[in-house]
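yo

u said u wanted the structure for the complex thing, so here. seqs first:
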Amino acid sequence: MDAFAKEPVSNGRIAAALEEIADLLEIEDENAFRVRAYRHGARVVRGSARGFADMVALGEDLADLPGIGTSLAEKIEELVRTGRLAYLDQVEGRTAPGLRELLGLPGLGPRKVKALRDGLGITTLEQLESAVMRSRVRGVPGFGAKTEARILASLEHLHRRPVPHVLWPAAEPLVLALTRHMERIPGVTRVAAAGDYRRLRETVDRIELLVAAGRDARATERLLEYEGTDRVVSRSAKRVKVVLRNGLSVDLHMVPARSFGAALFAHTGSDDHVATVRRFASKQGLALDERGVFRGDARIAGRTERELYESVGLGYIEPELREDRGEVEAARAGALPELLTVADIRGDLHVHTSVTNGRDSPRAMVDAAAEHGYEYVAITEHTASARVSHGLDAERMARHLDRIELLNDRQDRIRILKSAEVDILKDGSLDLPRRILDRLDFTVSAIHSYFDLSAAPQTERILRAMDDPHLSILAHPTGRLIDRRDPYAVDFERILAAAAERHCALEINAQPERCDLSDVLARAARDAGVALVVATDAHRKEQLDFMRLGVGQARRAWLTAHDVLNTRSWKDLERFFAQRRR
Ligand SMILES: [Zn+2]
Ligand SMILES: [Zn+2]
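structre next:
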């Protein structure tokens, strides 16, 4: 049974079918009289107060109605009785599917579609898009630049779909490749990435690129030649928006050199930060936009961001702080923090090797850490209850520690710290016997099971683990995985209070999908007097580079070197951990 036949076919649906026939016949150059007959019939049906389906059911002869001849009457009856119209199927069947999509574009009637096909051979959306991008459509009779712009807007609307975001490290190679591509264009003087990427957000929604170039660099066109470009969404002389093959979109803005700083500021965001600075400027009678800072008609700043901030009476604000979380007030008071840098980091305190679920040998990881210029590195293998990670039981851990001691004795480039990622069991106890824990320089401890306990027992579990003086650092404290797993339910304030009181450090885990703690929680931890550690949780050599992400997260949390334990010498660090064991 046809589903349509069960419900009476509405006048609207009949009219739409007749109109579609008219449109398709018109594109086919069918004689104008027939086209007009279908269009007229459609109008009659649409304007009728009575339902055509009822008339058919009552056995009335539709051909008697003015404007509906025998041929149309038969077709309407067929549609009402069967829910289908064989003639429409037939006309549709012989029309290129692309042409029907073109007809569906707002503002493109059959006459325009026909003109595009006859004038430029366009029969698909892709061909139309490409012709619009090359400004060829405006040359077709009946089209102008305005129609072209309207078509572009419709195409953009058609392409609108949820924007995928990527983790920051996935955006990085794209940003670097695009930057290199644009920098190679003769006449381009400067390329800079702005947006979430520049603010080192955990995820990047789209890439914002600013380009300064001489007049004839044709940079927006050249972006289209970038091999990773999948399609163009919109384009003008000053701005082009494309979607890359991986689905991420790129906004490229052409900016004059004298406005580069102002544009960088505007496109770096966040929107809230920009709005707050703008309000701050306007209170002083200054206008701030993408072109610069203006007093009346006079541009007083815009070439660099520093100049822009200073012109409104603020110190330079690092991109990572631009979230409208008090940074403007702090800048005004000269009270911005001196943010942590990668160079401040003296060692990585959370590293796995092939002994459990890492890829590289202890020796290879230690060498790689030494090459980072670190003073110390901690090898932190999993314990037995973390079964999926091939964790070590007490005996195997003991032998592993023997080998680490040996490895440490055999080289003097870097101090290898004896540690372990000790699992916190369901009851809050640590997954190693005391005699092994006592051998360790410190521990990172973490939850790897029972993520779904409710807040009260989960909080108790962590507090009980913190009661054990062997717990030195609570690793990936909330357990969230970006886009994959929410943080566990915990009373985070109680955990912070307990950590501060007991001198437990909290980790900022630099694995891209963890970034755990978040910027907001890390700042709350610092404010609660809790010491923080930035560590990579590297499972292979290259992942030691994630330190940059962890440091980015710490910067977004307003942390200074003073707030982060692994900026200290091992001696100072040892003293900190020793407080726990007293
Ligand atoms: Zn872990
Ligand atoms: Zn780990």
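Residues 350, 352, 421, 537 surround zinc ion (ligand 2) (CB under 6 Å). The first strand starts at residue 166 and ends at 167.
cya
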